[in-house]
Write a structure and sequence with these properties.
The chain has one domain: Rossmann fold, CATH 3.40.50.2020. Helix content is 27%, strand content 27%. The longest helix has 18 residues. It is an alpha/beta fold and 186 residues long.
């Protein structure tokens, strides 16, 4: 596929391989159980769709939309639930699927919020982990990749709600991104 922005940090092939590995592990861990997978929108939608297709047991899905970034490249420090679950999760095995964990604020907040809904179990799966930036500790059960502190885009992750369509993950070059966005507006 033609490169449309940035140099890949994690290639499409590396992502596909890792998502299959995660799907195999989750399938084995939840064999014979009723699994509810919760996608955290918007960033995790691409990862979530690919992951669900690589899990070979029956699953039900639900979605939440939360925000802690707004339109910038750093967290606002406050988590806001924009859209909550549509179904009850009480007494169910729940897997939260998130795109990236940075400080851990959003994931910690989600974990506590969903834990209060009394699921049977609750585990966390993230595509990208910025471990060195962690301020809030929450146990992460499935990790796609551990990365450095760069702001990344692609494969569902965005900059100003753009570049989610990249089939790979790239480090944001804010100058190049702004140039592309400004050129598009002309």
């Amino acid at each position: 596929m033609k490169r449309i922005f940035g140099k890949p940090l994690i290639t499409q092939m590396e992502i596909e391989k890792r998502v299959k590995e995660l799907g195999t592990k989750i399938t084995a861990d939840y064999e014979g159980r009723e699994l509810v997978m919760i996608c955290i929108l918007k960033g995790a939608y691409v990862f979530f769709a690919d992951l669900v297709r690589n899990i070979h047991i029956p699953v039900s899905v639900d979605f939440m939309m939360v925000s802690s970034y707004g339109a910038g490249t750093s967290s606002t420090g406050a988590v806001k639930i924009i859209s909550d679950l549509s179904e009850a999760i009480k007494d169910k095995d729940v897997l939260i699927v998130e795109d990236i964990v940075d400080s851990g604020l959003t994931l910690s907040y989600l974990y506590k919020t969903l834990r209060s809904k009394k699921p049977k179990t609750i585990k966390l799966c993230v595509l990208l982990d910025k471990l060195e930036r962690r301020k809030y500790e929450t146990p992460i059960d499935y990790i796609g990749f551990t990365i450095q502190t760069n702001f990344v885009i692609g494969y569902g992750l965005d900059y100003k709600d753009n570049f989610r369509n990249l089939p790979y993950i790239a480090v944001l070059d804010e100058g190049e991104a702004e140039q592309l966005l400004n050129h598009r507006e002309r």
